[in-house]
Amino acid sequence: MKLFLKKLTPARIIVGYYMLAVTISVLMLRIPAVHLPGVEVSFIDSVFTAVSAVSVTGLTVVNISETYSVFGIFVLILIFQLGGIGVMTLGTFFWLLLGKKIGLKERQLIMVDQNQPNLSGLVNLMKDILKIILLIELLGTLILGVYFLKFYPDWKDAFLHGLFASISATTNAGFDITGQSLIPYANDYFVQLINIILITLGAIGFPVLIELKQFLMHRDNSRIFRFSLFAKLTSITFLALLVFGTIVILLLEWNHAFRGASWHESFFYALFQSATTRSSGLATIDVSTFSQATLIVMSGLMFIGASPSSVGGGIRTTTFALNILYLYHFANGNRHIKVFRRELHEDDIRKALAVTMLAFILCSVSLVVLSISETHSLLALLFEICSAFGTTGLSMGITPDLSTFGKCVIMLLMFIGRIGLPSFLFMIGGKEEKTKFHYPKERVIIG
Amino acid sequence: MKLFLKKLTPARIIVGYYMLAVTISVLMLRIPAVHLPGVEVSFIDSVFTAVSAVSVTGLTVVNISETYSVFGIFVLILIFQLGGIGVMTLGTFFWLLLGKKIGLKERQLIMVDQNQPNLSGLVNLMKDILKIILLIELLGTLILGVYFLKFYPDWKDAFLHGLFASISATTNAGFDITGQSLIPYANDYFVQLINIILITLGAIGFPVLIELKQFLMHRDNSRIFRFSLFAKLTSITFLALLVFGTIVILLLEWNHAFRGASWHESFFYALFQSATTRSSGLATIDVSTFSQATLIVMSGLMFIGASPSSVGGGIRTTTFALNILYLYHFANGNRHIKVFRRELHEDDIRKALAVTMLAFILCSVSLVVLSISETHSLLALLFEICSAFGTTGLSMGITPDLSTFGKCVIMLLMFIGRIGLPSFLFMIGGKEEKTKFHYPKERVIIG
Ligand SMILES: [K+]
Ligand SMILES: [K+]
């Protein structure tokens, strides 16, 4: 028993939790009542839907609204919560738990928890995570539900759509029951803005949310609140990616997919499709109409993915930021990376570089393997692979046509993208060495 | 004058030499006599041919045998020598010159030069490089010239073909005067083997050649000769890539492009096409008949390219090896990378990682940019870009169809690939810090 507990490393617990969630989800999705009358779904497609829902990716081999009953839709909502919120909560929990080992001083710099770092404090924190997310989802449901009364006179229909939309956005699941994502709301900027806010709250990472909460609560306190390096880094990267994506999509599609659209339509198309690459996968336009250049850029954005300890996937925004900082400081001949008056820990840089390279190898090997098993173009496969690894769920439309082997590869990518290469590497990273005197070092989460 | 000399950093000298070589080449290629009677070549195509020849890439927008006269062919041979051998000689020279600054002890570990490290010693070394390469080219010309008497009864024709083939292979220029690369020799394993040997001698890097020479000359000496870490690392990587490429191409094309070919034909197709990705660009089969998976793998091999201080391009074999070693040691939790009873210097690892990432960014941006300016598929563009950056010169056939802007992008990639991102980064890398006691550290060339 003691040996069993010793073998329960955080990575194993998260993987185990994920596996359990997939198994339960598959079993639930095999209940006949989840389907609409007369609809049959093959076993592999049920497994694919389960993996896609648990990893909150949103790639689908079936049309949800034509396949699943209202009961089935509630089952899906439950699965998003298990996958999105569950993995995020566990991930944050273990990050804090591991943080204890780093030493009191550094842990305090992480600034997430001001309390005594004991187990009951951590359990309270997990409860906090759940409360905050459920509150966000509830607010989203209310706002969207009331708004949807405009389209669905029956309040039950309106609130079912509101609930599904809110949870699908907040957990970044990206599933839809409209049959065509958010395309029906292409001109409804209110729905889009609410969605972008919910997506961002889910994808920006829980540590940021809790620091934000603390900041708001301590606002009138005389002591100056300091956001952690991690919160600053991840938020700025998140914003920078959003802006970069919006500008690039706008420029590249201005005379292409957006031809004939007004400037504000074009802007919202670009903004929403940029925001969605973080990890949501909802779309207000058929992305397969985009040009090759745009689709390559979006693949890159999906590969980067969302922030650590969030509902998203990919290599994570912090990992990307550390890569860029590394290159910038290397080009300037600086060995030590300083940012926001803090010095990054060398081990974090090493991890970020390794994670990025491994993710690149993973996706490249997938490209070669899928090129053998499928007949689709390199562009369509690249987009699908990055979408799966980033748990984004956008697709050029090839998902239902994948071979069973191809579906398995995509499922594996969704799994690794969701769990995160970093969380595995975090366990096996280098040993601590004697530190020299520098700027105060500060750890950031690689994933 | 003193200020001028001070600004003459090695990187600037190499870039300056390259620019000068291109200018001279363009001027020479504008002499009317270089063309066959009645043939006109546009200015941009002359520039493209010049850049392709100076960077020994071999991508062509014109058919050489139908465009250039015998005089023009000799001009091209001269340009390969300027580009292939010239840059290689200068590169090695500066590597040794910079080696002096590393300190006597470490410089001795590099083992390339046992003499007093003074400038005249270095000039002698440059002469040595030239002698060895010219000897290799002469031997290649004699062997191929005599052999070609079989096909060309006139000895002048036979030796012109022998000379061009030998120099095009040794400098890894990859140009051909057959009009269809080495496809006419698809069943002539002797010509292929000679070509593979010449390609390898040019691409394995000059430091390896000179160590090999010293090894052969000191064989009967009682003192045990020790190959440098660099020589071991680069040779083993070179061999490993050759074997890996051969196996993968053979497996992927066995039932595809090689269908109907005998096992030994298939094996030689795979072997030659694997060897050619190091940097030669000669081919014994039309690579556009290969499957998507094979072409992705070949793109990766071309991106890696040849060894440092050689006639090739790409990120270089050592850079690739250091990346792999980094990942392997990282996965095992080792911070210090030990290989062949030596420890790699941390700065070299940092450089290798930065070079790889920058090269990846460079090629990705090129992909997006060419996706905007050209109408070709992602696969064709990826292959072309990796071929240009690796100065390989293989193509799916899109080179002549590129827009003028597209040609400029490819020219820039050939230039950077040939000069090497590493040689720029070598100048701007991190400052030296106090060393602690470890295994004896040993420098390797990143590029
Ligand atoms: K998603
Ligand atoms: K070449």
TrEMBL record, chains A, B:
Keywords, alphabetical: Cell membrane, Ion transport, Membrane, Transmembrane, Transmembrane helix, Transport
Subcellular location: Cell membrane
Stretch forming the signal peptide: none
Membrane topology per record: Multi-pass membrane protein
Pfam families hit by this protein: TrkH
Sequence intervals crossing the membrane: 12-31, 43-64, 70-98, 132-152, 158-177, 189-210, 230-252, 287-307, 313-331, 352-372, 378-396, 408-428
Domain of life: Bacteria
Protein known as: Potassium uptake TrkH family protein
Native organism taxonomy: Bacteria, Bacillati, Bacillota, Bacilli, Bacillales
